[in-house]
Amino acid sequence: MSVPIEPHDQRFPVLDPAVLQRARGMLATSASIVAFSGAGLSAESGVPTFRDAATSGLWTRYDPARLASPEGFAADPDLVLAWYADRRRAVARATPNAAHRALAARPDIALVTQNVDDLLERAGCDPTRVVHLHGRIDRDRCHGSCGHEEPIDPAVIVAELRRCPRCGALLRPAVVWFGEALPPEAWERAVAAMHSADTVIVIGTSGAVWPAAGLVDLARSAGAGIVVVNPDADPDDNKDHADIVLRGRAGEVLPALLSGP
Ligand code: NAD
Ligand code: ZN
Asked: Domain check: are 161 and 255 in the same one?
């Protein structure tokens, strides 16, 4: 499947062809490749990253911990649901970008994402292939302990408190909030993928959110090569201890990195 390459946006660094070639060579000799993604993967689809979000809208007026924590939900559930309704509408409006499509065209690559959007799935990735470490914004789950989970209808997003049909506790977005544990099955699958990876492509993540960020260290300790894709990555600083740093936007870099010879 060929993936169209989008024109270069002059505001971002031009990808160094020699570095790209090195990364392609690394992937060509890797039997097991993992793509580990963060909010930057969906930035070109118009879903704001944490940093963008910090400069506009609700984030400037409210503490993120109040909008995305069990304590915040207990204190003001209507505010939390109103904020999530906004985010859900933004995700529903967004469409997959060239980076999502490039990953969809490579079913051999394991996908571990911190993103709560479903843009990888909508680009055509088999849902069973995508490990969502931080849950999914297009689903609700029981805030009690019964484990009930249900999809929301993206055409009818309402900020309305609803009760779990199984146990009567409140329903809440099926995402991981500050202070909550990651879903054990997703975490186990991610750890297993990192252990067996020959190369991990780290796409659009600031590496600030733990324990997810620790997965890159885990993969490196287990012997994987690390390729970072990020327009803000500084090859001189290289805080990610990457073997190869591809400075550029995911939508430009991934089609060039992952397309056929
Ligand atoms: P972050 O906002 O902390 O960092 C985003 C990173 O993406 C930055 O390093 C930035 O330089 C990079 N970036 C920006 N545009 C890019 C592009 N076009 N291509 C490649 N990289 C680009 O995001 P994070 O590390 O994922 O942590 C934020 C947390 O918030 C995560 O836990 C995630 O679950 C959640 N979140 C999810 C979404 C989503 O689902 N789309 C959006 C915002 C936040
Ligand atoms: Zn319940």
From this structure: no
